[in-house]
């Protein structure tokens, strides 16, 4: 489970009343201090990157990014659109990821 997924789970427990404010803050601080992101973890996450077959509009790049990062897919799509509109290089990055990132394997 990634750090973002664990924080999301802690937040859900806090919202449901299972954790008090102090317990939530302590657990989050402990998780963030122990969960420092190393270069090895980053390379493992990048090697797990696959284009999504189920969550896709064009090539499945945003679905794959959403899966490994824990960030909602629509946020990745919005970021690519903003980069296209403001800087112009979002489309080039998306196309390169579409070409070089393999699709996830189907089961069966």
Automatic annotation (TrEMBL):
Q: Does the keyword Membrane apply?
A: yes
The coiled-coil regions, if any, are none
Where does it live in the cell?
Cell membrane
| Record key words, sorted | Cell membrane, Membrane, Transmembrane, Transmembrane helix
Sequence ranges assigned to domain Phage shock protein PspC N-terminal in this UniProt record: 48-104
A Pfam family recorded for this sequence: PspC
Q: Which InterPro entries match?
A: Phageshock_PspC_N (IPR007168), PspC (IPR052027), SHOCT (IPR018649)
Record's bilayer topology term: Single-pass membrane protein
Q: Cellular component terms, GO, for this chain's entry?
A: plasma membrane
Report the residue ranges that make up the SHOCT domain in this protein: 5-32
Q: Where are the transmembrane segments?
A: 74-101
Q: Which PANTHER family match?
A: PHAGE SHOCK PROTEIN C (PTHR33885:SF3)
**Name this polypeptide is given:** PspC domain-containing protein
């Amino acid at each position: 489970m990634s750090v973002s997924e664990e924080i999301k789970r802690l937040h859900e427990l806090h919202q449901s009343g299972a954790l008090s404010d102090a317990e939530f803050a302590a657990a989050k601080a402990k998780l963030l201090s122990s969960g420092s992101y190393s270069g090895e973890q980053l390379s493992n996450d990048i090697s797990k990157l696959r284009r999504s077959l189920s969550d896709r509009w064009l090539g499945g790049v945003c679905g794959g990014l959403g899966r490994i990062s824990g960030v909602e897919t629509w946020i990745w799509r919005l970021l690519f659109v903003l980069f296209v509109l403001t800087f112009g290089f979002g489309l080039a990055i998306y196309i390169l990821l579409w070409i070089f990132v393999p699709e996830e394997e189907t089961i069966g």
